Amino acid sequence: WDLQATGRRMQLQRWFTFFPPAERPAGELNADLIVQGSSAAPRLDLRGSVDKLVWRRFVADRMEGAAVLEAGTVSVGEFRLGQGEGQVELEGSFPLDLMLTPLAWELPDRKMDLLVAAEPGNLTNLKLTPWIADAEGSMRGRVRVHGTPHRVLLDGRAEVTEGSLRPTDRDEVLEKLSASIRMNGDLVTVESASAWMERGEVTAVGSYRLGSMEEESYELVFVADNAVVRQEGEYAGLVSGTLTVTPRRAKDGNIYPYAEGDVYAHRIEYAGNLAPQDVGQFKPPSILYSVRVEAPNKVILLTENADAEMGGELSVRQDVDGRTVLGELDIL
Questions:
Q1: Distance CA 276, CA 292 (A)
Q2: CA-based max dimension of the chain
Q3: Which residues contact 116 (CB under 8 A, 6 or more apart)?
């Protein structure tokens, strides 16, 4: 092979029509490609940029870089991703076995070594995960990614400051978010994290183990102090307590984040429907939970058929096929 190709102002969405519309990237590509070697052992030299890149909920002002594939290794000399005032840089190498005719490729279990630096990075990228509906803020860090593609290891630190995020299917917004995260081999540790939920604070610590079984991969402990929780049109509450979140396989065979713990309710206002059939009418949950709620008073019902203050103890459980509430509340 001895081929050179140049593309200028190419619209990505026109080149990915074989993708479903929601999966098609958009942006303007400028690139230069040199192909040498043989079909079984090609050498590729690529340099290019994409302006105004959009994919799903990912948005970048500019992505640019250069890479060379030779002898089964991709060497990234420079790669930059710009998002507003944030920038992420990547350099290093990773293995890639590529055949041109017929076209085939794989990431083999050979050594890789990449350095990722965010100065700063943008928290909006968390929206690519299924657990975050919205996020803002910045993150600074330097992380070495090594090991192999089949057993990834991380070493470095990351710091989040003045962030905010809203979990999927929830109305609460965590503001003034800060976190300190350490990565050491296959262990990612949240050394400290805190955020404000309106008038109260939530703190968290925990860890994530890379390469472990999915049901044993992480544990996060959240402590709330006078935090406000709410679901629009249904309830709002001022609560304190501790919840432990771990992965757990549900009866539908899928694995969900599962929260378990005890909560003290300083005040709860409920304006939802009290009809029994209302309990099962909900969207598929993104998180499951089993929570014991102590509410000696100030449980306020504000419905069409009730206006009363109550108190008592409840056990609330959310499963994939319904929510159950057990316990007693006395009218005060």
A1: 21
A2: 85
A3: 88, 89, 90, 141, 142, 143, 144, 145
What local confidence, expressed as pLDDT, does residue 277 receive? Answer: 43
CA 160: distance to chain centroid?
14
18 Cα distance to chain centroid: 27
Q: Residue holding tokens 């995960």? A: 129
Name the band, by pLDDT with cuts 50, 70 and 90, for residue 280.
very low
Q: Name the band, by pLDDT with cuts 50, 70 and 90, for residue 278.
A: very low
Q: What is the mean pLDDT of residues 53-65?
A: 89
Calpha distance 319→200 (Å, rounded): 28
What is the sign of the dihedral through the CA atoms of 128, 88, 60 and 192? positive
Q: Which of 193, 3, 178, 235 is nearest to 100 (CA)?
A: 3
Q: Closest Cα to residue 265, out of 302, 286, 240, 228?
A: 240
What is the rounded distance in angstroms from the CA atom of residue 319 to the CA atom of residue 248? 11
Check pLDDT > 70 for residue 311.
Answer: yes
Pairing type for strands 322-331 and 307-319 reads: antiparallel
Which tokens belong to 298? 């100030």
Cα–Cα distance, 166 to 286 (Å, whole number): 13
- Distance CA(324)–CA(327), nearest Å, equals 10
Among 35, 27, 33, CA closest to 6: 33
- Tell me whether residue 287 is exposed, middle or buried, using C-beta atoms within 10 angstroms of its C-beta: 0 to 12, 13 to 18, 19 or more: middle
Burial-class residue 281 by CB neighbours within 10 Å (0-12, 13-18, 19+). Answer: exposed
CA distances from 210 to 152, 214, 227 (A): 7, 9, 31
Q: CB burial class (10 A; 0-12, 13-18, 19+) of residue 264?
A: middle
CA 258 to the chain's CA centroid: 16
Mean pLDDT throughout 213-237?
87
Instruction: Enumerate residues 6+ apart whose C-beta is below 8 A from 281.
Output: none
Compute the distance between CA of residue 224 and CA of residue 15 in angstroms, rounded to an integer: 49
